């Protein structure tokens, strides 16, 4: 496993620790430390979707690269396997995308759906683009499409009552699995 700074470490079993069991369930989401440490601010004016392609696939959580667009895991996912499809070119809205970009975004989305079905055995998928900050886009300046796998049993009280999303798998583990299952171009 990797820590938030990318250093390798072994997961430590907890059965040897001195502790008194309690009724609490723990949600381990170490990737969120990046967000917490930045207090919700990236600390940079650089567009993360323009920066990502210059990083290694592991660092950027990229699962596939095309000619005009690429696919990466959402750093702050709604569900495990929550993917984003982004054009390389910095455009804000779908109507600004070229025909080649639109075609590849669509093609990568179809492939992502197939790969997610194979790797996560999801029951459905939410696909969507929020165009503009007022429409809910977290990064309104760079077009990106969300692909969110859904399962019949994936709803619980956490998001509604506690404002918390339980993610059963680490991002790096999910990225490796999806990237390995992605068909060769």
TrEMBL record:
Record has Nucleotide-binding as a keyword: yes
Protein name, per record: HIT domain-containing protein
Chain positions of motif Histidine triad motif: 142-146
Keywords: Nucleotide-binding
A Pfam family recorded for this sequence: HIT
Residue positions of the active site: 144 (tele-amp-histidine intermediate)
Residue ranges constituting the HIT domain according to the UniProt record: 48-157
Record: residues binding substrate: 74, 146
Keyword Nucleotide-binding recorded: yes
GO molecular function: catalytic activity; nucleotide binding
